[in-house]
């Protein structure tokens, strides 16, 4: 019997510059979702696979602003994570995503005219430890 949990979490959002940020679930403010799957006998273990996804509403953006999103579990570095992000309604801005630590995902914005957008994202990674909130 393996270990499986699927639920939601409220990440810590840390905007820089003039940016504002809130999570979006089903078109309204809400939590992000995640699942954690592992081979442990009903308990979390090192190397479990985590899939987290959701939307972040970002506003008052200027070029170079960032928004940091906390991850639900510490990322292990043995396997590279898969990160995808896109703008729900493309406009005059570009978003990129990068990991800045084992517990933090950062969106960076290149803005030419539009000052806000919803970023849809997903990240799949393996855990660094057996800690489960």
* Helical residues, percent: under 10%
Return residue spans where pLDDT drops below 50 for at least 5 consecutive residues.
Answer: none
Number of strands: 11
Round the mean pLDDT to the nearest integer and report it: 88
Report the major sheet. Answer: 7 strands, antiparallel
Radius of gyration over all CA atoms, rounded: 15 Å
Span between termini: 20 Å
State the secondary-structure class: mainly beta
**Tally of domains:** 1
Number of H- or I-type helical stretches: 0
Describe what you observe in this structure.
Helix content is 0%, strand content 56%. With 133 residues, it is an all-beta fold. It has one domain (3-126). The strands form two sheets. Strands 1, 3, 4, 5, 6, 8 and 11 form a seven-stranded antiparallel beta sheet that branches. A hairpin with a 2-residue loop joins β3 and β4. The two termini are 20 Å apart. The relative contact order is 0.27.
Give structural attributes.
mainly beta, four-stranded antiparallel β-sheet, seven-stranded antiparallel β-sheet, 133 residues, 56% strand, single chain
């Amino acid at each position: 019997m393996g270990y499986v949990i699927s639920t939601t979490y409220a990440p810590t959002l840390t905007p820089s510059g003039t940016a504002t940020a809130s999570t979006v679930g089903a078109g309204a403010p809400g939590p992000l979702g995640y699942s954690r799957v592992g081979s442990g006998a009903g308990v979390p273990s090192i190397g479990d696979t985590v899939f987290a996804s959701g939307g972040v509403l970002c506003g008052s953006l200027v070029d170079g602003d960032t928004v940091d999103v906390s991850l639900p579990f510490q990322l292990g570095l043995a396997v590279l994570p898969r990160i995808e992000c896109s703008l729900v309604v493309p406009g005059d801005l570009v978003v990129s995503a990068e990991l800045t630590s084992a517990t933090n995902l950062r969106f960076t914005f290149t803005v030419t005219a539009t000052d806000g957008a919803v970023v849809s994202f997903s990240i799949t990674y393996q855990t660094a430890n057996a800690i489960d909130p």
